[in-house]
Write a structure and sequence with these properties.
Distance between the termini: 18 Å
Strand order of the largest sheet: 1-2-4-3
Number of strands: 4
Helix content: 40-55%
Number of helices: 5
Largest sheet: 4 strands, mixed
Strand content: 15-25%
Length: 134
Amino acid sequence: MTVRVHILKKRIPVKADRVARIARSVLRREGISAGGIINICFVSDPMIRALNRRFHGRDRTTDVLAFDLGAGSGKGGADVYISVDTAVTNARSFKTTPEEEALLYVIHAMLHLAGYGDRTAKQRALMRQKEQLY
């Protein structure tokens, strides 16, 4: 699995190699080792809001969006968008660092690509458990 990191909004000190290493580790531990390219893009709130509106019909910002381009096969790759603005805001609220928040979003996105959801209370509980594991 090839992971490409694109820092389009440079507001927080994330290291591309660390992001890629974490993403590959989560996928590998979740049993996804097939080929494909995952693009992880660090973007602004306005950009993630526009993507959320266009692809999900939700006119609001969010922390992370993950688009599985291989329909769960792990072969077609994925595009992931992470809001650095939201990471900064949430870091203040949760008393973490913006980098820690952004890396949590990377883990969250990889779990989505591995098939985990977060729409129901049961799914969210499992997602949080997996996030803490990684």
